[in-house]
Write a structure and sequence with these properties.
322 residues, two-stranded parallel ribbon, binds iron/sulfur cluster
């Protein structure tokens, strides 16, 4: 009975780790993401984001070094991840001048099947657009996403707290125009984050940021935000409802995040690393894969025993792993 043998081997394997851990129900590798944070430095101060508070804290803000990137990519693949996210929890991808070189290296790995990122497009210069066009194996790119604050300068400034609307409008339009000219299939998502009562439509978003009519451009409107465990209290924003039922571990615990400083975390969402919050920190790149696996399995076991990590307790992005 090969099935029974596999089951018993699985039990032995877990016991060798020192403890029998329950398996997360939603642990198919293909659904999980390994986030690689090429930079934790940002050039905006969005009112829905804890970055302004993080920038004031003692967090080490820097671009990921080439050595840490190589070690992160290697570890992600060793741990079985085939889908990468280059969106930092807080930070801007293009702040790292070697971003394209690193993403190209990831796209060239046979074990990496797909990747995506979010950027605020402030540094989506013509030089960076050319780098996007030159990336290899573009069929592995799920989408490139750009996050903007509304479709006019005043709303943008309110949401992103920097005066960059005309810059991002130019940049995203220039990208769409060049992708159209190149006959590209690259999917571009543009997410407009809006304050309460702002009725900007998808159609307006398309007309503002995709004047060339690139066919693989999609606009989304985001009007609901996470208060990040109480850090964000803007009156002009609407928030996700509080979630009280968290019996099952969150499915995002299957994600892993390699931060710019060489630390390894569970979950890649912005809530997971707030100032003074490290309950989802699993270790560093110098730890063995076994150590990291044991740490993450312990978080699942503790959750099922009723001990929810402090990062997850107030989190409204929670979704049960079912
Ligand atoms: S939401 Fe993104 S762009 Fe805005 S401050 Fe935070 S990290 Fe920067
Ligand atoms: S509850 Fe929130 S912080 Fe915890 S794993 Fe889920 S998304 Fe991340």
């Amino acid at each position: 009975m090969p099935g029974l043998k596999k089951f018993l081997n699985g039990l032995l394997k877990n016991r060798e780790g020192g403890m029998l851990y329950p398996k997360n129900k939603k642990s198919q590798a293909s659904r999980n993401v390994a986030y690689i944070e090429l930079s934790n430095v940002c050039n905006a101060k969005c009112i829905f984001c804890p970055y302004p508070q993080i920038a004031e804290s003692d967090k080490n803000l820097q671009n990921m070094s080439a050595e840490i990137f190589a070690a992160s990519l290697k570890k992600a693949m060793e741990l079985g991840y085939s889908r990468l996210g280059f969106t930092p929890t807080t930070g801007e991808l293009f702040a790292n001048k070697r971003w394209a070189e690193h993403i190209a290296a990831a796209l060239q790995q046979e074990k990496i099947k797909s990747l995506y990122y979010y950027s605020n497009a402030i540094l989506l210069t013509d030089e960076n657009i050319e780098k996007i066009l030159a990336l290899p194996n573009q069929q592995k790119i799920e989408k490139f996403c750009f996050s903007v604050g509304g479709s006019d300068a005043a709303t943008y400034k309110k949401m992103f707290a920097v005066d960059k609307f005309e810059v991002v409008k130019r940049n995203i339009n220039a990208l769409c125009e060049k992708l159209k000219k190149a006959g590209s299939h690259l999917k571009i998502n543009c997410e407009l984050r809006l304050p309460r009562h702002d009725m900007t439509t998808q159609r307006t978003a398309e007309k503002t940021f995709n004047q060339a009519g690139y066919v693989n451009f999609y606009a989304n409107i985001v009007r609901i935000f996470d208060p990040i465990g109480g850090l964000i209290t803007e009156n002009d924003l609407d928030y996700l409802p509080i979630i009280t039922d968290k019996v099952d571990p969150c499915y995002r615990l299957n994600d892993i995040r390699f931060d710019a400083n060489g630390n390894v975390w569970m979950c890649g969402c912005v809530v997971s690393e707030r100032p003074g919050e490290s309950s989802l920190l699993m270790g560093s790149l110098t730890d063995t894969n076994e150590h990291i696996q044991q740490k993450r399995q312990a978080v699942f076991a503790h959750w099922r025993a009723g001990e929810i990590p402090s990062a997850c307790q107030p989190c409204r992005l929670y979704k049960a792993a079912k």
